[in-house]
Design goal:
Layout: H1 4-26, H2 30-34, H3 44-62, H4 80-98, H5 103-106, E1 109-113, E2 120-124, H6 125-149
Antiparallel strand pairs: 1-2
Length: 164
């Protein structure tokens, strides 16, 4: 299953898509970004906060630098520009980290405690790294729907367009 290039590709795709999403969001007012659109995390801003939260939690686990946050739905950054800056920093961290991934580590058991139910789980590291990228895609898909509901265009989101 494992191919290290897959995670590098997903990290690049993640960063590219986040740049696209945040560029569209800059065209909106703060009120539009924070408008309750009945999404799981209520708004575009809330969902972007959750995406950053998830990435920081998983990267903290993977790099043994735990990220402490009180709740899955908490707002990390109320200010959109601060959220954007932290998103960019986190994307660079993820890209750099994937370039250093050890295939042996990916196949080893990885224990973590879930922030959802507080239960400890052990799974191969590659399953959890794959989950991190899948989680990003899942919630970014929600954001693109919310963007379109507000009348904005997120553009093409398919991986082949990453390459031009």
């Amino acid at each position: 299953m494992y191919n290290g290039n897959y995670y590098q590709l997903m990290a690049e795709y993640n960063g590219w898509m986040n740049q696209k999403i945040y560029a569209v969001c800059l065209e909106m007012s703060d009120a539009q970004r924070k408008q309750n659109l009945d999404a799981f995390f209520k708004s575009i801003h809330g969902t972007l906060n959750h995406l950053l939260y998830g990435d920081r939690v998983w990267m903290g686990r993977f790099t043994d630098r735990p990220f402490s946050a009180s709740a899955i739905g908490q707002e990390l950054y109320a200010d959109f520009h601060e959220l954007k800056a932290e998103r960019e920093r986190t994307d660079r961290e993820i890209i750099n980290w994937t370039q250093q991934l050890d295939p042996q580590w990916l196949n080893e058991p990885f224990e973590y405690t879930s922030n959802v139910d507080n239960n400890s789980r052990v799974l191969p590291a590659w399953v959890l790294v794959t989950h991190m990228f899948n989680h990003q895609t899942h919630h970014r898909g929600q954001v693109t729907t919310l963007i379109k509901q507000l009348g904005f265009e997120p553009g093409i989101t398919d991986i082949p367009w990453l390459f031009g």
